[in-house]
Structure formats: C-alpha cells, structure tokens
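Complex record, two chains
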Amino acid sequence: MNIVVLIKQVPATTDVKIDEKTGTLKREGVEAQVNPFDLYAVEEAIRLKEKYTGKVIVLTMGPPQAEKALRECLAMGCDEAVLVSDREFAGSDTWATSYTLAQAIKKIGSYEIILCGKQAIDGDTAQVGPGVAEMLDIPHVAYVKKIEKIGDGKITVERMMEDGYDLIESPVPCLLTVVKEINNPRLPSLRGMMFSKKAEIKHFTAKTVEADKTKLGIAGSPTNVMKVFCPPARTGGERIAGEPSEQAAKIVIKLKEAKII
Amino acid sequence: MDYFLTDEQKMIVELARKVAQEKIKPVRQEFDESGEFPWEIVKELSQADLMGLYIPQEYGGFGGGVIELCIAVEELCKVDGGIALSLAATALGTFPILLFGTDEQKKKYLPRIAKGEILAAFGLTEPESGSDAGATKTTAKKDGDFYILNGTKCFITNGGVAEVYVIIAMTDKSRGSRGASAFIVEKGTPGFSFGKKENKMGIRASATCELIFQDCKIPKTNLLGKEGAGFIVAMKTLDQSRPGVAAQALGIAAGALDEAVEYAKTRKQFDHPISSFQAIQHILANMATDVEAARALIYSVARAIDKGDKDVSGASAMCKLFASDVAMRVTTDAVQVFGGYGYMKEYPVEKMMRDAKITQIYEGTNQIQRNVIALDLIKKSAKKK
C-alpha cells in the first residue's frame, strides 16, 4: 500500500512576527519544526506500512529549508521524501497550495491513502487537507481518531465529533486528516537518522508538476489579506494593590460579592 | 567544549537527548518513587536502536564501541541516573560475551540484546564476597556435559528483569582465584531463582536483585572462556565497563550542574539573583571544572579502549574513580545551591544526589579502584627496571 503524507514546516515558537506590508508570517530566522499535528499523520502512515507493507512518501511544499522537516520524517521511518519548491509558489493561499500539492501527488502516481494533520499550528485553517482531496476528486474524512480497517477497496475510520464519534466507511483512495488522539508519534531511530542523512530528496518545481501557472502563488490565490492585526488588549478591570495577604483578603470579598464563591 | 565527535556520534547524542527529554523526564519522579522497572522506556531505547550501540553490526548492533555507549549513557543520565541502567548494566552483562564468547554464543545472544528484546546482567558480587572477589563461594561442579551451579549472588543490577546472566563461579576452589570460571545462565533454567528485590537509596528505577542457584544445571557449552579464566573474564569486562559507570556519574553530575545554573539565575535573594553572588559563582565554577575534567578523561579512555589499547586497567579505574567522586561532589553542591528547595523531592537535585552515591560503590568501590590504579603503577615501574 502506498501512503502519501502531507506535512508542513512551521515556526517552532508561538512568538511569530507578522509582516505588516504583506500580512503574512515572517519566517526568517525563526526555529522551524514539523507541524506537530502532522507527526500523528506520519506515525499513522508508518504503522499502516508496518501492518500492510508498502511505502510511505512524505511530501511538503515550502522553501528549500523545509528539506529539514522532510528528513525528520525520514528518520522516523518514511521511505521517500518530496519537496515541492519553486519561487512561483510564493504567497500561495490555501487554495493555491491545495492545487499545487494535488498536482505533485498526481505526479507521484499511485497511492491508496493520503494522510495529513488536522491543521497547521501557524495558519490554523485546516483547509489544505480537504482542499487537496477536492482537487484530486477523491473522498476525504477530517478529524480521524482511529483507522478501524482497510480492505476490499474500502476504509473504515472513526471521525472525532464534539459528542462522541462517527463511524465512516469510504472508498479508497481517499484522504484523511488526523487528530492527536489517533496515536503517540515515535521518536526517530538511529538507523532512521542514518538513512535520513543520506537519503535523496526529490525536488518538484512548477514545471515538474505541470501546473497551470495562473493558479500558482500569490497571483493564483483568491484570498486577499486586507489587514492583519492583533486584537486590542482588554482594558478596564480593577487592580487590587497591597501586600499579598491584603490582596488575597480583598479578592475573596470581591468574589463573594459576585457570588462566584 | 568540542570533543570532535563524529557525525554519527553527534546523532547518538541528539537521539539520546530526545529520548531523555521527551520520554524519560516526564516519568522519572514516578519511577523513582515506585521503584518499578521502566519497561516502557526500555521499549523506547530499543526502538531508537540505542540498546545495540556497542554491539558489532554482524550481530545486529550499531557497531559502535565504548565511546558510543558512554556518550549515550551520559546524555540519558543527565535526566535520570537510574533508568539508563537498563542499558548500561546490560552492556556490563554483554561485554563478557563480546570479549570471550564463541561465535555460537555470540550468535545466540547478541542479536536479541542488540534489538533490545532481552536485557543482560553480570553476577560477581556475593553476600560475603564484595571487594574480595576471590572469596567467591558460588560453585560450578562439572557433571558430564553439564555444570551444576550452587550459591547466591547479590546486588545484581538488572536482576530479575534480564534474560541472560553472566555468572562467576568456582570450578576448582583449591586453585583460588585461578579456580573461577564464567558461565552464561538463562532466566528460567531450573534451579535458578530470584531472591529479594532491594529497596534502595537511589537509582530506584533500576532493578537490583539476589540470584539464587540451587543445583542449577547448565550445559557445558555455556562456559564462557576457558575453565579457570573466570576472574580474567571479570577483570577484562570491568576494564571495558568502568568508563560506562563513569559516564553514568558524569551524566548525573552534568545534569545537576545544569539545574544549579538555571536555578541560580532565577532565585532572588537580597534583591539579586543568587548567580550574581561570588559565593554561588565559585561553587558553580568548581562544579563545571569537575564535570569538564571528568568528561575529558572518560572520552579519552573510551577512545583508547576502542582503538584496541590493551593496557587500560589503570586508566579505566581512574575514569570510574574520578567521575563518581565528581558526581557526589557536584550533586551535593547542587543541593546546596538550591538551599532548602534542593532538599525537597519537588526539585530534581535531591534525587541526583541519591543516585550519585552508588557510582562510588558499585563495579568496584572507589577504594578498590585506587588499589587497581596503584597496582598498575607498581607493575609498570617494575617492568621499567
């Protein structure tokens, strides 16, 4: 069984700066990591491979330095890695990204399952996974917390809901986005790290994926970011001054008045 | 300081640090309190390929040597000096097979040890024979194609949890220390049972147990090395393994130093962080100097062993002696830097101080290490004449 995992390299910090002109994240000089939700997808892919045999191809779209994120996934046990990178992709919104990734997956060819994390922790849109499925014209299930079984051209999964879960059967090939409840991602192994260090990473450009140039990058992105801003800090409230013991006594009185305690 | 580790060795350090930080740190206090054996961490170490670091590739290991073992143990022990013993004590039980085993013995045990499927242990100490290893009472009597073992070993690290034990027993008491032999005994052999599990001061997540042999019959093919070579097997094994204990001590010390520095920067007294006071700075400076010196010594000796230097008894004993004394000093000072908080279980340094103490005692007390070093000096001096 061939499994494709889509990952994203994201800043390894919550303290990111925003470029005021373009309204996008400033990624220069910030430590990067594999999007934590994607690690669950990588783990699940490796488990499926161990159970059903086959290979895991990890794929990301990003700048050249995203190669590091791919190598981390290879060290965990993925077999091949593809970096989709081209200046023409710069400024892509979720639509253009989904299109580009779908083109890259078409180039890879045969696959049974595509796995993604439920969302990236930088943009938090959760749109690219399902977007890719639409562009490829295959079914998708989001928020999967368990893969029950695969066989006879079908897959049965549990989709996490706010009050319980849905049991869903889908034909394969299909795309799943997974939640953290699905597994506990492994650490890399020494053999994996050795393999990863030497492994060749395939590079796909706009030309390789045979993309329609009008659908790429900032020009191909229907989303226009008008403005990015931090919501104003909350004002008002009351400060209780004094020694800690006095402050405690005063706050207790206030809380009692408000009938909170 | 740059110790010019190879890319592979840097990878080992990075991986061991990951396991320590992400898997061991969250559970270290729990295992210290319960004294249970950390099987879940053994699984992590196996999956990361760390259990077979020092085992040749032809037997399914990573193909490293003593230095690879030391840097991994150091890194793991920065976070927990007890849990890492599942690896370090297995190495102690595996070295005699690596050094003296026949190809069949190696093929039988090493691949499973390398994969982390089974753990190993080494049994020399007895209730009445600690530093005086020559007083070993456990006997192995030849009986046709078998040996019959009788006696008790105590304080055996990985006792009860290991599947493979290398046991030193007397085959001919009349020959004294030349009458000892080494044997491989598997868990589950009839007549081989476990006594009490010790309740210890430190390294509580490590299993320490009594081994009891009552007419335990093992095939003669389990003899390791020649009959009568038991103490040579033991001494050569310890020469290889002492840098590992030293690395455990180094890790504990380095971990305590890191904790002390971080704490000193945040703890404020007299309106200033205590790290701004010379009284604290000098303690930290001494700790750091001790740690760096121990590291330099251990890495040098480990590399000498891996390069095939046969004359390592003295240097290997120095590693263990120096690093374990450093660990005791540095962890005690770390508790001092933390003050009252350091004495509390809520902070990690009290455990580090408890864990450090054993490194001055086991695999030969530091007094015995001094004997080894002195004997080596005198021998070499005699050879010069």
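Note: Strands of chain B lie at 120-123, 139-143, 146-157, 164-170, 180-186, 192-197, 208-219, 223-224, 268-269, 272-273.
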